[in-house]
Design goal:
The structure is a homodimer. The termini of chain A are close together. Chain A has helices spanning about 20-30, 40-45, 45-55, 75-95, 115-135, 155-165, 180, 185-195, 230-240, 255, 260-275; strands at about 5-10, 35, 60-65, 100, 135-140, 170-175, 200-205, 205-210, 220, 245-250. Chain A is α/β, with parallel strands linked by helices. In chain A, strands 1-2-3-4-5-6-7-10 form an 8-stranded parallel beta barrel, surrounded by 6 helices. Chain A has a two-stranded antiparallel ribbon with strand order 8-9. The first copy, chain A, has a single domain (about 5-275), classed as Alpha-Beta Barrel (TIM Barrel). Chain A has 11 helices and 10 strands. At the A-B interface, α5 of A face α5 of B.
């Protein structure tokens, strides 16, 4: 098997590339899969993207992202559910079986993390059957606790599994992303729990580098630049039975400022060096 | 009992004030306790600080801080242990029974969080008896997971208690700080565990506000500005049997740029409004 057989590059890592440039770059480098994002896909066109990627023989490993399901206001809540159903449809149209979900943060003025997490659970109950009926699994992504207030009230893999396990595994599972979980000494046991339940729906890599930038969004490090032992995390998910794609997803202002083809090649080399 | 009877202001909250200004401000506002930091205390003079604070009748609720115990290099390690013994001596001289410990981050180039935590445990084994012999308890402070690489490999209250419980409670306990723990749904149960073992040695408050500043050090919010329900956390520690001081410790560039007396008064008012 090629050492890149399970490699996938998330579109956000090289967002400076157009979709045709991304596809061409993947073909040149032998990258077999891509994780896509809804916004650039919809700019290029959903059907056009599906045709482009399909013609190239690339697998779409995930679609990012649904979620933002914590609103209290009924109209906001309905809008969010409608938008997530649209995201499921887009995932199906792109031929991926995995929609990554970021839960959403606290509503303005709220201090109730528990209540927000319960609203996520309620939404999963509505969205899970819809997704499964279209062959799409929802993959709750716990984000690092530094995002708990403003982006994602689900901060640990244990919390994500507590939510996912209320539903069948073909409806709801989890995304394991090293950037968000690397600090957590309970995560390996939770990966085993997720694997035993068939709920590892996506596996993503990014390195932890410091100092964190203002807003802490766009400082995810290239593999090898930071504190994370990727082979150890790969071993954890594989010991749990995961044999699916391994996506590298970097949000990084410095990388975005560079030539996208060069970043794509470097990301591929880093994957082989640190996680291959 | 005065509603301020358990209130303590950490010196860092108003670091623009000199020690005499801080003491005078506390007397004027009826603040009965202060948490002190080693660096400004040593600039003013250890004996002079003890005399100043003692004459004013202020309690020194904690000394911040010892720790940084993760070095691998033997000479660095010896220096850290010597420095921590000095910190214990300073705590005793100031009349406080609690030295707050920040564990330290990963050594340069290391990706081994577990090993670093074990070196912290080894160091506690050396420092605990020394501290207890001088009437000082070590209070391991779990810092938010966003500091795991560069500042503190102990990220959760569970991890801190796993370390502390290897030693007698009069040697090693924990610091519960809302800023670091607020996102963690397992923290209330861990507070109960800490309280049952007599290991809640300090309780500190700061609010979680976003966006986080670059470097994520100096954005701790005034009580009421952020996402944390302080009365709920106070109820957790009190249900666990904690009846000690409640320190407000803010690291905040915007507060430091203002008049320190005004910030001190406002911090007192916020304590009464949100945690009193």
């Amino acid at each position: 098997m090629s050492p890149l057989a399970r490699f996938s590059v998330n579109q956000m890592t090289v967002k400076q590339l157009s979709l045709p440039e991304l596809v061409e770059g993947c073909l040149e480098l032998g990258i077999p899969g891509v994780g896509l994002w809804r916004e650039p896909v919809n700019v290029y066109g959903l059907d056009a993207t599906a045709a482009l990627v399909g013609a190239a023989g690339l697998a779409v490993t995930t679609l990012c992202r649904g979620g933002f399901l914590t609103a209290v206001d009924p109209l906001d809540r309905k809008r969010a559910l409608d938008d997530n159903r649209a995201a499921v449809d887009e995932a199906a149209a792109l031929g991926t079986d995995t929609l990554v979900l970021v839960s959403g943060g606290l509503p303005s003025g709220s201090k109730d993390l528990h209540g927000a997490r319960e609203r996520v659970a309620d939404a999963l109950g509505e969205l899970g059957p819809y997704a499964a009926s279209r062959g799409v699994r929802l993959a709750i992504e716990p984000l690092h606790p530094m995002y708990a207030a403003d982006r994602c009230v689900v901060s640990t893999l244990a919390q994500a599994l507590d939510l996912a396990e209320r539903f069948p595994a073909d409806q709801v599972g989890v995304t394991v992303d090293t950037y968000h979980l690397w600090w957590d000494d309970t995560a390996p046991a939770q990966i085993a729990r997720a694997g035993a339940g068939g709920r590892i729906h996506a596996f993503q890599l990014a390195d932890w580098t410091t100092p964190l930038p203002e807003g802490v969004l766009n400082g995810r490090g290239p593999l090898g630049d930071g504190s994370i032992d990727f082979r150890a995390w790969r071993a954890h998910v594989e010991a749990a039975g995961y044999a699916g794609p391994i996506e590298v997803e970097l949000f990084n202002d410095a990388l975005w400022a560079r030539d996208g083809r060069e970043v794509l090649a470097e990301t591929t080399a880093r994957f082989l060096e640190h996680a291959g």
